[in-house]
Structures are given as structure tokens and as C-alpha cells.
Specification:
Number of domains: 1
Strand content: 5-15%
Order of helices and strands: HHHEHHHEHEEHEHEHHEHH
Number of helices: 13
Largest sheet: 7 strands, parallel
Low-confidence stretches: none
CATH topology: Rossmann fold
Helix content: 40-55%
CATH architecture: 3-Layer(aba) Sandwich
CATH class: Alpha Beta
Structural class: alpha/beta
Mean pLDDT: 91
Radius of gyration: 24 Å
Distance between the termini: 68 Å
């Protein structure tokens, strides 16, 4: 009897062993370096299946800095940092944060325009039978503003969040069923582009530049069909990137300067999109591209 009991205990122990776990339920196994191709495929498939099952075919992608706060939040940040500096006048870190907040104060207007644009797209957009859905990186700043605009319009919107060293959670305005989280930037950028019928880039840093130039390169090389690419804030973009000099030195063609347009307001950006598709209506084959 004791021998049988020992065997039963051994059997139970075996069923709880690491090796006995089913491969797809074994997080440690799936996290091995050799399984990276499988993880890449899973990251591609999970959002793809969710969006396809809900009939989402056409999106407007909105990029921009996570550092751009709403006017209200910007004022609160400056007030709090000013008080903190007064209490700790020797704290260089606090002074640097206050200086940065001051620099970004004028950018609060972009938050409001992104919010208006997200709302405008959600309220009035139709491409054929397909409603345009707002897609952002799912984080704070411009991303929050665009998702917020869609939310205020009573529409669904998508957030493609990314795991970062400085952990960044999703903003509260993303639709829960479309709140995705990525590990791989490359797969995330694929999802930005796959259904995109227009792209709006607000001022931002390295991440915004990376996402913008990914799309510009795909359109320039013909991998992605032509679509409206709108840069909000001409002063910022022409100050930071001298596009015309790229053509001047021959590294891009003069025609490549026509791949994007500048806008200052949500209404202006929406007009660019509607005028583009009045000239270049989508057909069934383009819809599948």
C-alpha cells in the first residue's frame, strides 16, 4: 500500500514538472531565444485576428510625442515643478524637469489638435463602406489625445502599446478590445501600416521619426500604396529636418517631396485626406493591398 502511495505521489510530481507542460502553455519555453520566430508570428497574429474578426479594414494612424500634455496638464506640471524647485533650489534634476516643461508648454496646442483630429476622423470618415478607425501607439501625449477624440465621438479606437524600460501603460481612451501590447517594434510598425489609409505625424522625437520614415520609405519604394501623409506643424518639421536639402544633394528625388503635406489644424488635415481620396478612390484590389 505504501509503495502504491509513493507511486501516486511520483505521478503527481511528474505531471507538475516543467517538462510535462504543454509547449504552448510553457512561458519559460516560449521565452527562449530559439523561439523568437514563434513569438514574432504570435505578435503578428493576435492583433491581426482580432481586427479582422471585427471587420476593421481602414485606419488613420496618428503618431506624435508622448511628452506633449494637454494645456491643463501642462499648467499643472509647471506649477508642481515650480513649487518643488522653490522648496529644493539646489536640485539640478528638478530644475532640468522644469526647464523641459517650459519648453514643451507651447506644444500643448498639438494635444488639442490631435484630440480634434481623432474626433473628426471618427465622426465623419467613410471610405466606401469602411469607416476609418483611429490607431495610435496607445500611450500618453499625442497618442492619448487622438484616442480621446475618438472616445468623445463615441467611436472605437486602437492602441498599439509597446513594452519599454520606462514602463508605459495604455492611455484610458483606447477601446479595451483593441488595446494591444507589443514586445517587438518591427511587428508593431507592421500593424501601423497594414490597414493605414492615412497617416498624421505630430511633432515628436526618435520614435516618431522612426515611424514616419518607415512609412515614407515604404511609399517611396512602392511597397505600400500611396496614401495621405500629413505632418502637423510645418515650423517644427522644416526646422528639424531639411527635406529639400535631401533632394538638393540627390539622396531623394524632387518628386519625393510630394509624398507628404503640412497641416496646422485638424480641419486642414481632414481636408487633405478627403481631397486625396476624391482624386484617388480606392478600388477592391487596393483595399486588399
Amino acid at each position: 500500500m505504501a509503495a502504491k502511495t509513493n507511486l501516486q505521489k511520483r505521478t503527481i510530481k511528474l505531471t507538475r514538472s516543467h517538462a510535462y507542460r504543454k509547449a504552448y502553455a510553457d512561458a519559460a519555453f516560449l521565452s527562449r531565444p530559439e523561439l523568437r520566430p514563434v513569438r514574432l508570428q504570435l505578435e503578428l497574429l493576435k492583433p491581426e485576428l482580432a481586427l479582422t474578426e471585427r471587420g476593421i479594414k481602414s485606419t488613420v494612424v496618428i503618431f506624435g510625442s508622448a511628452r506633449i500634455w494637454s494645456p491643463q496638464e501642462s499648467a499643472l506640471q509647471i506649477k508642481a515643478l515650480t513649487q518643488a524647485v522653490r522648496k529644493n533650489p539646489g536640485d539640478a534634476s528638478l530644475k532640468a524637469k522644469l526647464a523641459l516643461a517650459g519648453k514643451l508648454k507651447s506644444s500643448a496646442r498639438y494635444y488639442e489638435e490631435a484630440r480634434k483630429f481623432g474626433k473628426l476622423v471618427s465622426e465623419h470618415s467613410k471610405l466606401g463602406e469602411n469607416k476609418l478607425i483611429v490607431v495610435t501607439g496607445g500611450g500618453p501625449g499625442v497618442m492619448e489625445a487622438a484616442n480621446r477624440g475618438a472616445y468623445e465621438a463615441g467611436a472605437k479606437s486602437v492602441g498599439l502599446n509597446i513594452t519599454l524600460p520606462q514602463e508605459q501603460g495604455p492611455n484610458p481612451y483606447v477601446s479595451p478590445e483593441f488595446c494591444f501590447r507589443f514586445h517587438y517594434f518591427a511587428v508593431r510598425k507592421m500593424h501601423f501600416v497594414m490597414r493605414a489609409k492615412a497617416l498624421a505625424a505630430f511633432p515628436g522625437g526618435f520614435g516618431t521619426m522612426d515611424e514616419l520614415f518607415e512609412v515614407l520609405t515604404l511609399v517611396q519604394t512602392g511597397i505600400k500604396r500611396r496614401l495621405p501623409i500629413i505632418l502637423f506643424g510645418k515650423k517644427y518639421w522644416t526646422d528639424v529636418i531639411h527635406f529639400k536639402n535631401m533632394a538638393k544633394y540627390g539622396y531623394i528625388s524632387e518628386e519625393d517631396l510630394d509624398l507628404f503635406k503640412f497641416a496646422e489644424t485638424a480641419d486642414e488635415a481632414w481636408r487633405i485626406i478627403t481631397e486625396f481620396y476624391a482624386r484617388h478612390p480606392l478600388n477592391e484590389e487596393q483595399e486588399k493591398a
